[in-house]
Design a protein that fits this description.
The protein is mainly beta. The chain has one domain: Jelly Rolls (Sandwich). It contains one helix and ten strands; from the N terminus they run αββββββββββ. The strands form three sheets. A four-stranded antiparallel beta sheet has the order 1-10-4-7, with no helix packed on it. The longest helix has 21 residues. It starts with a helix and ends in a 5-residue tail after the last strand.
């Protein structure tokens, strides 16, 4: 009987998640790539984007899901946007992943926390064609020159485009 209740609760939670996601009116693009076991420093997560409009501004986000296996309070990312006609913008970004007490930031009630991290705001995709966004980590241990080869605790990397909120 307890197993039936647990399964019913799981189905209800999944149904609510689908309902919440389907009612997301700001979403223009939202895609995730799963990290197999560890995020290798040379592994680049790529997202191909075909913007729906070349006049309206959009807000851009990097989404990360992490577990308690993530052992850092921040994360450094290299995010590269490649425009259809070859122009490239590359940024090195730092985001906080935990508060000073070590409690992970982000949303989620279980072991996995989801972080929606600002990348750029009011971006206009004024070139026609497909854009590519590449994301890789650039983590280093304090006092060490070489980067972290295999970053543990990151389960998914995502990229999201939203309509800006209207005032």
């Amino acid at each position: 009987m307890q197993k039936i209740m647990r399964n019913s609760l799981t189905v209800l939670i999944l149904a609510l998640m689908v309902l919440v996601v389907s009612c997301d009116s700001k979403r223009v693009f939202d895609e995730y790539k799963t990290v197999p076991n560890v995020w290798n420093k040379d592994s680049i997560m790529s997202f191909s984007i075909h913007p729906p409009d070349s006049i309206k501004p959009y807000n851009l986000f990097v989404n990360l899901r992490n577990t308690s296996q993530y052992k850092y309070s921040n994360i450094f990312l290299i995010v590269e946007m490649v425009f259809p006609h070859g122009k490239t913008i590359k940024d090195t970004l730092e985001y906080r992943m935990a508060d000073p007490s070590g409690k992970f930031l982000g949303s989620g009630i279980m072991d996995v926390k989801e972080n929606k991290l600002w990348y750029k705001e009011n971006v206009i995709f004024n070139e026609s064609g497909d854009y590519t966004v590449n994301i890789q980590h650039a983590m280093r241990e304090n006092g060490k020159v070489n980067g972290v080869e295999a970053l543990e605790g990151i389960t998914d990397i995502g990229f999201r485009i939203e309509h800006p909120t209207s005032n």
